Prior knowledge:
Elements: H1 3-27, H2 44-49, H3 59-76
Amino acid sequence: MCGREWWRANQEVYDAELHAIYRAMLTLFQEPHGQKITIFADAQAALQRITSDAPGPGQRYALAIAQQTHDLRERRRVSV
């Protein structure tokens, strides 16, 4: 892969990791109260990205995950 193709492939993996975390958080609203649920993710860059709302790659997922986290804390009274 040349430089641009390599960057695009890595960007797609990065977005896919963030999307998977986001989808996992969405499913938490469907789970019964009182359940202990753990979301595992091994993509360090994706985990670091969700702690920042700075412009750049993955921003829309970072913002969406932050909103889901807030909603879970408010509606379900869970720790995230």
